[in-house]
């Protein structure tokens, strides 16, 4: 029969002393790594160089969108103002691969946006990207 418990060590040390001896190299390694990162952190104390500044762009770019919504809640496709009855006829067919892009003014009311989204949902649009103006 094979014994499952190994015979006691002949060194005369207890189990706890043998575990402490086995952990000593690991403690030394962790200490050396700690010292390395402390020294490496001190060497890399120089801040990153400043990036060259780009002049702010003064020209306004309109976003590439299928539908524009202005601050008054008017819907425009290709510069033409549309209402609930005609908007679905002028928009491209609903496509899950190419979602409809809506560029909305930042001051549009939630009620106007909700009306638009309900109309588009009834027209079969499931995927919509809502583009808004960044705050300045």
How would you characterize the overall build of this protein?
- The chain is built from 3 helices and 5 strands.
- The chain has 136 residues and is of the alpha/beta class.
- A 5-stranded mixed sheet has the order 3-2-1-4-5, with no helix packed on it.
- A hairpin with a 2-residue loop joins β2 (75-77) and β3.
- It starts with 14 loop residues before the first helix and ends with a strand.
- The relative contact order is 0.11.
- The model has no long low-confidence stretch (mean pLDDT 79).
Strand order of the largest sheet: 3-2-1-4-5
Note the overall shape. Answer: elongated
Average of pLDDT: 79
- Please provide the ordered H/E string of secondary-structure elements: HEEEHEHE
Sketch the major β-sheet.
Answer: 5 strands, mixed
Helices, by number, come to 3
Helix/strand structural class: alpha/beta
Q: Helix amount, in percent? A: 25-40%
Alpha-carbon Rg, integer: 34 Å
Keywords:
elongated; 14% strand; 34% helix; alpha/beta; 136 residues; 5-stranded mixed β-sheet; single chain; 3 helices
Task: Give the SSE layout.
Blueprint: H1 15-43, E1 67-69, E2 75-77, E3 80-82, H2 87-90, E4 100-104, H3 110-122, E5 128-132
Summarize the structure.
The protein is α/β, with parallel strands linked by helices and 136 residues long. It has helices at residues 15-43, 87-90, 110-122, and strands at 67-69, 75-77, 80-82, 100-104, 128-132. Strands 3-2-1-4-5 form a 5-stranded mixed beta sheet, with no helix packed on it.
